[in-house]
Amino acid sequence: MLLCEDNIKTDKFISFEYLQVVVGHTHYPLLIYHPIFHSDHLPEDSLDQGERLEHLIEEVPFIYDAIQELGHNDSFLIKAENGRIYLPLVHDRDYIKSVKNMCQELQEHEHTENEGVFLSKNSYEMACYAVGATIQAADMAKHGRKSLALVRPPGHHAHPNKMGGFCIFNNIAIASEHLSQQGERVMIVDVDLHLGDGTLAYVEGKSNVFYFSISQKGLWPYHEPQDDMNTELIFLKEGIADYEYCKTLEERLLPAIERFRPDIIAVSAGFDTCGMDLLDYGEKLKGGFALSEKSYSHLWSLLDKTLIPYFAVLEGGYHPLSILSGVLSFLKREA
User: Rounded to the nearest 10 degrees, how much is the dihedral formed by the CA atoms of 129, 89, 209, 4?
Assistant: First the structure.
């Protein structure tokens, strides 16, 4: 059963006008982006390449045009800010310093590898902007604006003192902690193909942050713990398609939202569940789902119906068409 206005305790919402903002009747969704996310040079061994975003930002006319005016016009595309001041909300200061130093020591077009993550000279700066974009999205959600932080690198595998799985700093965890310290109850919904082990570690022992994840069974990081008081972890078999995935969202996500009653929902939007990733990168990823834009649109639709403010941040998704499908579903627009 879908949530509707009658199911919601309306003491959180001030006015009908506010409700209109929350469900998107007044404002269209926003993208938060910075050119730095498309500027590094990593070796071919890394799936997290700037080319992931290429089709979206260069071949979709309304996005390409907005990027040309980025920071100079009033549009759906917002320029990301540097979020380095927020890193200590989750990460150890020694770790932050070590990442900065590793990157600064590199020459242009040179790279190094740490914990399986490739780093270039501007990886630290780029990761700081990814955090900043996610903080901006979180703050917009507090004011009823729906936005997606279109960032690289992803973040949900990053731990307080180590990187992993292409992730340097944990964008969604930092934004959730930022909101939590302001008294907000935050529910993280992770729809990436892989369990966000860094985010799972972040929520341990927290009463006002909940972690809900749908990922593939038996896949890296090979960690499938039991549910805890503030976690619900769902592991689906390889090759799942839209019907079963959407059914799982309805049967498991909506009841979890009703139980936890968050003030804000934070979505780790991994589009590596798209069928294009399974087709082209299934062997390298050692699995995948066969989802289409239908599943992503259904997710946004379910969240809209809860009338709870939410924001999203890009995690995985390595075929450019996977990113295109997921982002356009969020904007509710066509290329």
Answer: -40
CB 270 within 8 A of CB 154: yes
Question: What's the whole-number mean pLDDT along residues 203-216?
Answer: 97
Q: Give the 3-state secondary structure of residue 199.
A: helix
Nearest to 262 by CA among 3, 88, 29: 3
**pLDDT one-digit tens code per residue, 31-47:** 999 999 988 878 888 89
DSSP state of 274: B
- Residues in contact with 191: Cβ distance below 8 Å, sequence separation at least 6, in sequence order: 213, 214, 267, 268, 269, 270, 273, 299
Q: For the chain, how many helices (H) and strands (E)?
A: 12, 10
Q: What is the mean pLDDT of residues 130-141?
A: 98
Token readout for 205 is 């022992």
What number of residues does the chain have? Answer: 335
pLDDT tens sequence across 282-291:
999 999 999 9
- Structure token pair of residue 227: 């549910």
Strand 117-120 and strand 111-114: pairing?
Answer: antiparallel
Say which CATH class 5-331 falls into. alpha beta
Asked if residue 189 lies in contact with residue 176, where contact means CB atoms within 8 angstroms, the answer is no
Tokens of 33: 């982006």
Q: Which residues are catalytic?
A: 157
- Domain boundaries defined on the chain: 5-331
